[in-house]
Amino acid sequence: MIKERGILFSGPMVRALLDGSKTQTRRALRPQPQPQEEFDPGTARNRFGLPRDRLWVRETYFAFGHWETRPRAGKTGDEWYFVDETHATGQRHRYALDEPEGADRPSGR
Questions:
Q1: Cis-peptide, bond into residue 31, ω within 30° of zero
Q2: Are 8 and 56 in contact (CB under 8 A)?
Q3: Does residue 102 have a pLDDT over 70?
Q4: If you average pLDDT over every residue of the chain, what do you get?
Q5: Which of 37, 44, 72, 96 shows its CA 20 to 30 Å from the CA of 59?
């Protein structure tokens, strides 16, 4: 089963992904095998998932607000409206760990 996981990248790495110059990402195994031991790939587990899992990029972002729905007055169905969050939270960047899934930029996956 394919899983989706967010992975942190720095600004330069995000730009390299988007312009196509970064084509792979490597992460160190933890715990590291001891140099004197024979490495058995069948026992290594990658905490970032399996081949073909979808990794989405988490990066620092700026949130102006979000969209919500509300019932339409005198009509059936809902209408969409924009909730401005800059008055309540101020204009500031949000940390990558707080970025919601699906808010990532398209990366040609």
A1: yes
A2: no
A3: no
A4: 74
A5: 44
